[in-house]
Each structure stands twice: as C-alpha cells, then as structure tokens.
Amino acid sequence: MRGEILRAWASLIRDNSEELAVLVTVEQGKPLAEARYEIGYGAGFIDWFAAEGERTYGETIPSHKPASLLHVRKQPIGVAAAITPWNFPVAMITRKAGAALAAGCPIIVKPAPETPLSALAVARLGEEAGLPPGVFQVLVGDPIALSEPLLRDTRVRALSFTGSTQVGRLLLGGAAETVKKVSLELGGHAPFLVFDDVDVEKAVKGAMAAKFATSGQDCLAANRIYVQRGIYGAFAEAFASELARLKVGHGLEPATDIGPMTKLSVANKCRVHIDDAAAKGAQVITAKQDDNLGPNFVSPTLLTDVTDGMLIAREETFGPVAAILPFDSEEEVLARANASEMGLAAYVYTDSLRRALRVSEKIECGMVGVNSASFTGPPIPFGGWKQSGLGREGARQGIDEYMELKYVCFGDL
Ligand code: NAD
Q1: Which CATH superfamily is domain 1-186+388-410 in?
Q2: pLDDT value at 291 more than 80
Q3: Residue of 38, 83, 96, 142 with the most ligand 1 atoms within 8 Å of its CB, for mutation
Q4: What is the pTM of this model?
C-alpha cells in the first residue's frame, strides 16, 4: 500500500515534469535542462524506496542458547525531520522523504528559504497521490524558529540535513539533547586527479562536467583539479578553450550553461576566491560574459598555477570557478588530496588499472569516480567521510536511517 502511493507520487512528479522544472529554474536559477534532469532524478528516489520498503526484512540469528529462537526486526524509527538545501530543491527532498515514508515514518520537511515553492509543489503532488494527511509536511519560514522546536521535540526521532558543514555541526549539537538519529550530507571539496597517462581531451570533458554542473553549486563539484606536470600545459589549454564556450544567462534561455548563483553570498565567495588566488600569483582566465546580468551571475573562471595556500585550495567554492594545480607523483597528490577535513567525493582519471585500484583505496572520501564524472543516482550510497557528513542516502542503506533494529529472543521453546 505504501509502495503504491509512493509510486503514484513518483509518476505524478514525472507527469508534471515540465511545470516543476520551470519552477525549479525560476526559483533556483539552474538551466532548464538541468532542472528537467533533477525532476527525473528526484522521482527516481521515490520509486527506489517504494521498492526498498518491501525489503526491510530482518534476520533470524542461529541461537547461542538452547530451546530459543532469535529474531531481529526492522521497525520505523518514528517522526523524521528533514532540513534541505536550495541547490537541488526537489531531489534533496525526495531522497529523504522517499526513504522515510517507505520505512513507515511521517516526515516534516523544512526547505531552504530560497526554494520553498518547489517543496510545496512536490508536497501538493504527494497529496494528490494519496499520502495520508500529515505524513508529509512542509514548513516554510525562518530556519532557526522552525528547526528549534523540531530539535527539542522528543517525538522527532530522526533528523536528516543537507547543507553547510557549519549548520550541520549546529544541528548535530542541537539533536544531542534528545539523542536523535542524525544523518548529515555536508560540504565537499572534491579533488579531481588527472594522471599523465590519460587522454587529455576525455579528462578535460570529465573535469568540465564535474566542475560546472549546477553552475558549480554542487557538493560533488571538483574544487581542486590536480594535473600531473607532464600534461599540465595541454590540460589547461584544452580546459580554457572549453571554458570559453560556456554561456552565462537566465536558466530559461535555451543557450544557457551557467545560471545565476542562487544566493548572492555564494557569488561573492566566488569573487573572494578569484581575488585571493590572483593576489597570490594564479593566472585568471575568464569566459567573457555580458557585464549587465547582475551581481548573482559569475563568469566561468579558470585559475591556473594554483598553490595549496590559496583559499580555493583550502575550502569549497560552490560556484563556477575551476582551480588547476600541478603535481609530480602519486604519493604527493594523494597526501595533498587527503589534507582536507572534507571527504565527500573524489575523481581519478588514469589509464592504469593498478593505479586506479590503489588511488581509489587510499583516497579519503565516501564516493570516487574513476574515469567517471557523473555517478550519482538512487542505487548508490551517497555520503561523505570526515566532516562531510554522517550516514548514507539512497541505495539499500538509505532506508536504515529511518529504521530501528529490534532484537527479540523467544525462549523456552
Ligand atoms: P546552509 O547550510 O545555511 O542552508 C542549508 C539549509 O539549512 C537551509 O534549509 C537553511 O534554511 C537551513 N539552515 C540554515 N541555518 C540554520 C540554522 N541555524 N538552523 C536550522 N537550519 C538552518 O547553506 P547556505 O548558507 O545556503 O550555503 C552555504 C554553503 O553551504 C554553500 O556555499 C555550500 O558550501 C554549502 N551547501 C552545501 C550543500 C550540499 O549539497 N551539501 C547544499 C547547500 C549548501
């Protein structure tokens, strides 16, 4: 029954894909093609968990006691709360709500103040699909005023958050008082490693995709592109010519590759990273755009000769600014890639299978794309190591964030 309603919800989202995509573009800014992709991606999580909910069976443990039977069951944890970001205003909601509802938990979602309408539109379709009143609620308004009661309330047993590490830390602390089960998907600062045995053109294509998707406002965005010295010049040159083709503009214009930054603070952070790198000796190459677009628009920018001391090499940018850093050896680049408190995703481009296996083992993060710039989707366990987060979303594991285990011992049989 739960599965049927969830599948009906996913179908309604797909049936209304065009209207939802336009709403996402107008609210969030991303190009319409990316918004359309997000709607399909978002509906996919609901379908995935509709099926996964049918497989939440437990275990029978071979007993260590005579005349007894040992069972482990999975049961819904209770009411869940979700605090979601503005960069994927539909998919970050369905990834959490699909899992919670399939597990049997009602969920209260507090979307980002920048993108409330996408959340409400998805909720409206949930109602139409037959979600019982109250099991999926959306709270729109001041983040602190809305989240504090959710944190305090002992009936809220699980909290799932996607957003900045700074707010994630606050929420983890806030949830401690009532000992909630917390899952966090926080910032990234992805290293993108390009070894000198690769086809430069393919690696540039991958780096462009990993950097400029969602106009760079993506926690998986390649923030530090390390290129082995032998191909550094060729890579930078090819990257610059691809960059020159990118068109900045309104998301509803068909030619647009890069939309406005959703928040002015994100656009300003891009400028700070560019200015800091330039002041410390980086070369700045910018794809020239119309200067009159407004302060939320950032021209796609390539920074070459970036060094580890520059801000962009130390923290997530979250915008269309690509930093390329040279390296000499595998050992050196691994040490530099791992010298971060963030550990969400990494990318490795190499033609050597041995190296791919070694590097993917040693890199400290939750997700690695080997010769692959795009690897997300409902079947994969999405999440990070270190201060990039706690827990996993999507996949077989995602539903467990909303379930408790119960061990039952039947004795005296
Ligand atoms: P944020 O963490 O402030 O916002 C994310 C969500 O948290 C929103 O719903 C917001 O309303 C809510 N929030 C903010 N402060 C809160 C508080 N004190 N209590 C409860 N909820 C609160 O993120 P931001 O400022 O919009 O973006 C800043 C940076 O965060 C970005 O530049 C990026 O580095 C990171 N970010 C990451 C993701 C991701 O996908 N992991 C998404 C958005 C932002």
Answers
A1: Aldehyde Dehydrogenase; Chain A, domain 1 (3.40.605.10)
A2: no
A3: 83
A4: 0.97
